[in-house]
Amino acid sequence: PYFLDKVFSLRDLSAVTDIRGYGMIAAIDVAGGEVPGARGTQIQKYLFWNGLHVKFTGDTGIIAPPFIAEKEPIGQIVGILREKLAEL
Questions:
Q1: Which residue among 35, 59, 69, 80 has the highest number of C-beta atoms inside a 10 angstrom radius?
Q2: Are 27 and 21 spatial neighbours (Cβ–Cβ below 8 Å)?
């Protein structure tokens, strides 16, 4: 529940259009750009160069930390996502 609570806390960001999840996997949809998937690709690269690998398929990012992840790493993941998505 901690993981999903943290991920769902991102729903207040203007770039986020939808969030869904189950267990230790979640997906975040971001508002698309002029070309479908271009913004997701841009965000994936941006996050990677800022220390977080989130797989984007189109404009949907898939977050799946290790099943043994503890609260601190989950907080770091969501913190990086919040910081970088808020800049969009």
A1: 59
A2: yes
